[in-house]
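Lecture 7 notes: from sequence to structure.

We start with a single chain of 499 residues. Read the sequence below before looking at the structure.
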Amino acid sequence: MTASTSTAEAPAGLLQQARALLIRTMTFYRDDPRTASWLRERLERIEAPLRIAVTGRVKSGKSTLINALVGAELAPTDAEERTQVNTVYQYGPEPRITAYTPHGAAQNVPVTTLDPGTIRDLQRWRPDEISRLVIDSPSPGLQAITLIETPGVSSSAVKETGRSALAQILSEADAMLYLTRHPHQTDIQFLQSAHELEVARRAPINTILAFSRADEVGSGGSDAMPSADRVAELYRNEPRVRSFAQYVLPVIGLLGQAAATLDADDFDALAALARLSSAEFENLLLSADRFVNSTTPETVSTTTRQDLLQRFGRFGVEHAVTLITRGAGDLKKLRSALLADSRLNDLQESLHQQFVERQEALRARSVLMAVEMVLRANPRSGGRQLRGEFERLLANAHEWDELRLLSALRSGQVRLPPHEREAAERLLGAFGNQRHIRLGRRPDAPESELSNRASDALLQWRTLAMDPMRDHVHREAARTVLRSCERLIADTSVRDTAG
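Now the structure, written as tokens:
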């Protein structure tokens, strides 16, 4: 290629385009310090870990599940709803707590360790005194994501401030994990209202719905999880839920927290309980007082029993002991079995696949939502060009279409024959966004091989998209994969030109 020939460049991705629009919007509102500062914060967050709001109705198990996901007991868990302020759990090399007032002033709370009791006391402050807590923790579980715990959707804190939890979530988070014991009309209405903005309606790709106390479904006991699975399947296919949630799954938050924080002392105590006869153990579990105050076995102290019951719950203690008697004979095996049975592994995999692996699409969504909120709240003359660019980005955000279809394939909302599903997921980027991975080829595959593979895929999915024997849903799915193939073809053309 000669020096006078321009080098072909691939078109900027959605996040790059959204970021550029955010900067132009910030420049347009530079004479409005409050708006410009708010937009600057959103610009800075693009480089920070993905922010996931953990929200839901009062006492849906938000704190418990946060502890399970982090793998440490940070969020305080109480019998009553105590969270009054948004609490951000983020990675930091040293433990630190920062409290923010509604006016933005920050105050560091001196701590050497992160004690849930200290956090609990701060969370009980009135929202007009402390609007946000930021907890820095060196927990590895927070290196890839930041978790934001909100007050319960119907809590007194939300009503007292006059600002809904919805506004906070839209402002603070890239994605949402919504917890409920069982979906009620309140949950559906809240989640629908979270998708009122144009960006949210165009890209309902940031929500996972979890039944966080699956062990309580139906009559509880051994039939609870199968019942919860059936309920989850019903809601996955419910049109209103499908319009905003990418996945619906059951999880036992308390069991997940116990598994994630299980240590050698816990295992020794549970193993001692497992050595009791069935009759003795069942007798212990007749009431909490009997379990805590019993002296059988003598090696398990009252303090240990209280801790086990608080962290595991009655169901968790019984389940852990059952697993030990069935062969989970060491700490590693028990933790693995508890994590699997709690479905925490499933939730973590869903969070990783739906959110972490596709975080650029989610960040672009957050950026464009911020731009939309500003253009709506503070319209001014001369903003037509910004609005036009905003609309163009929304109309061409294929990355969002890919995410929606991947979610639909994984949740069973769209069903394809196994060979078609595998090919579709690969072309949509489920196993990696690199071109050779999408095309199922080695990293060192020559350009000619990648080009031929992309052309073959294009022809296959064009045929499926036009198949009159398929219904509208499946033809639309095929068209989404087809557009992904077209992008791969375009990418190949750009590389050939550049070469």
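The radius of gyration is 25 Å. Keep this in mind for problem set 3.
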